Amino acid sequence: MQPPMTNPRTSKTRRRIAWEAACLLLYRREQEIYRAKLVAGKRICGGWVPRRELPTNQEVLDELARISEPGACLNEPDLQNETELGWLEAKGKLPDRTEKIIAQHDITWDELDTDQRPECIDQWQLFLSLLRPLENIRMPAPFIQTGDALFHSLQTFEHALTNSPYDQEFLLAALLHEVGRAVDTRDAVTATLELLEGEVSERTAWLIENLPEANKIHLGTIGHRSWRRLRDNESYEDLVLLSECDRQACAAQANVRQAEEAIEYIIGIEEM
């Protein structure tokens, strides 16, 4: 039986999430403050926490500074083990590590709170921060030879770009369709949709959500009712095309753009 989920709206729970995220950053278990908050929220609340209910970046940084002070007590029971935390290695160096983290997050747009930067920068930097961890995620069959999920995503983007170079929503679906795999390999699609909630259009979300079903069309395993449901959507042809791009993105070696370059291209579509 799953434990009941904790309500993230309470101030106590919110601080626990901030504390957990700060520890993840401090001990290098996570490199991005946004992902640290996502992972911390899942640990503390027993499920995914909407972005609007997570602690702010400043709350995490404040907690990071607090736990790094000389003599600070790490009260959470799962962080008492010195070996697990690397406490002996880090002892005496915590303030320096904290200053580096805070300095890094002070100077990058993507790690500032939403109300401190333009909305467009927040959206695109969020996408980039979700793509980066995919480099460490291995793809399952039939994409094993592709290697990591980031390389597969960039290949999918390249194929999508060849077929539909000016469709921003379609290209975003191709580029971002695997971002949830970094946080939940068992249900990557659901995780992807939760991560992108409110950040992409309904069409982009629909394409990502139904990509697994579209792949069944090629395999001949889709049910008639499911196929008819997809066919009745105005973006059905685009979904079939996305499925083709996804299946083609299985090369062990390929010329692809960097994630930053892919994002820059999509942003530039608005000026074309």
Measured distance between first and last alpha carbons: 53 Å
The CATH superfamily of the largest domain appears as Hypothetical protein af1432
The level 1 CATH classification of the largest domain is: Mainly Alpha
Taken as a percent bin, the fraction of beta residues is under 5%
In angstroms, what is the radius of gyration? 20 Å
Question: Which secondary-structure class do the elements indicate?
Answer: mainly alpha
Number of helices: 14
Helix/strand order? HHHHHHHHHHHHHH
The counted number of beta strands is 0
- CATH architecture annotation of the largest domain: Orthogonal Bundle
- The average pLDDT is 79
User: What is the makeup of the main sheet?
Assistant: none
Summed up, the domain count is 2
Instruction: Indicate the CATH topology of the largest domain.
Output: Hypothetical protein af1432
Q: What percent of residues adopt helix (DSSP H or I)?
A: 55-70%
Overall spatial form: globular
Stretches where pLDDT is under 50 for at least 5 consecutive residues are 77-95, 106-121
TL;DR?
The chain is mostly helical and 272 residues long. The protein has helices at residues 11-26, 33-45, 57-67, 82-85, 87-90, 94-107, 119-131, 149-163, 168-176, 188-196, 202-219, 224-231, 236-248, 259-268. It is 58% helix and 0% strand.
Overview of the structural elements:
By secondary structure, the chain is an all-alpha fold. 58% of the residues lie in helices and 0% in strands. It has 14 helices and no strands. The chain has helices spanning 11-26, 33-45, 57-67, 82-85, 87-90, 94-107, 119-131, 149-163, 168-176, 188-196, 202-219, 224-231, 236-248, 259-268. The longest helix has 18 residues, at 202-219. The chain starts with 10 loop residues before the first helix and ends with a helix.
